[in-house]
Amino acid sequence: MRVLLNEPKGESYKSLIQFAFDACDTFLFIKHTQLSYSQSFDKVVKELEPDFICCKEQNEWPGTISVPTATVYYFHTSEKSKEILKDITDSLFNWRAPNLPDDLCFLKGDKQWLINTSHERICDIITESESELEQLKRINGLIYRIDSE
Question: φ and ψ at 77, to 5 degrees?
Answer without folding.
Answer: -80, 145
